[in-house]
Fold this sequence. Notes:
Elements: H1 5-10, H2 16-24, H3 41-56, H4 60-71, H5 85-114
Amino acid sequence: MMQSDSLLVSGTETPAVARTIITTAMSPYCPGLTLEVCPSPQADSLRRVIIERVQRGDTRAMIEADLERDFGTEIRSMPKAEGFGLVGWAVPGLVVLVGAFVVTRWLRRQVRRTEP
Length: 116
């Protein structure tokens, strides 16, 4: 009896690199879902291809580059930390820092107003 692909992905026979790719790639067949949880038969086939490529010795970078070439940058669940994708990483951090600065200054002013 053959195991389902979701068991293959989480099971010990799936190489860790393949598991990482499958759990972090967005599915080209199920918008908004990762490849890991997409129930389509095409996703099953793609998961098998990724596992087979890792078992043949292909690296994570090679497989991810091929996926991006074949399906576009939408396959990435996170932007690359380079070029315009760097903005996706930097802006949230800057917003938090600026917000913390503004809140700190506001709190200091409030404390000064309440001091006798």
